[in-house]
Amino acid sequence: DYRKTTGVSIVKILRGNRKINIPDAGERLYPYDRVIVAGSDEDIQRLIRSIAESRSAEAGKEMPECRIELSQYVVEAASAFIGKTLAELNIQKKTECMIVGIERNEEPKKIFAGFTLAEGDTLLLAGEKEKLDVFEQNMGIPVNSV
Predict the structure, then answer these.
(1) CATH 3.30.70.1450 occupies which residues in the chain?
(2) Is a pLDDT exceeding 60 seen at residue 144?
(3) Quick one: which of 36, 51, 107, 135 has the most CB atoms within 10 Å?
(4) Is the pLDDT of residue 19 over 90?
């Protein structure tokens, strides 16, 4: 709550084409919001310092490395995937990997929850290397990684 920490009241929030007049304390601020505030010169200076400190603290944080890779997997004859829909397998939730492509008989197929996998289908998955490794260990056999 900016009023408690700085003494400044937010009078209006401009969010794209929307105007939020006299927002309540529960209204969140989002990137690119523009705000109209009311307060004494000291209060407004305190708000400016608070924003600068917040930005400085964020800038000092290191972003964790997140490298997404692509791998292909073939649905083998003995695979438990055969006859199951993508919804039933729920690969994204279980592995944090995303199916970005499916080929059957070297033809790209549309990805949808009701798609039923068959022997020989090729799945193209995107995910962090560690997550793809978990998928490989628990759910499939890789053809290659890109």
Answers:
(1) 2-60, 68-145
(2) no
(3) 135
(4) yes
Residues 6+ away with beta carbon under 8 Å from 98? 91, 92, 125, 126, 127
Distance of CA 112 to the CA centre of its chain: 20
Whether the pLDDT of residue 91 is over 60: the answer is yes
Report DSSP letters for 74-98, one per residue: E--TT-TTTT-BHHHH-HHHHHS-E
Residue 12 parent element (H or E): strand 9-15
User: How many Å apart are CA 113 and CA 89, to the nearest integer?
Assistant: 9
> What fold, for 68-145?
Alpha-Beta Plaits (3.30.70)
pLDDT of residue 60: 65
Q: Which CATH superfamily is domain 2-60 in?
A: Regulator of K+ conductance, C-terminal domain (3.30.70.1450)
**Is residue 7 classed as helix, strand or coil in its secondary structure?**
coil
pLDDT tens sequence across 32-89: 899 998 888 888 888 888 888 887 776 666 666 668 888 888 998 888 899 999 999 9
Distance CA 15, CA 35 (A): 9
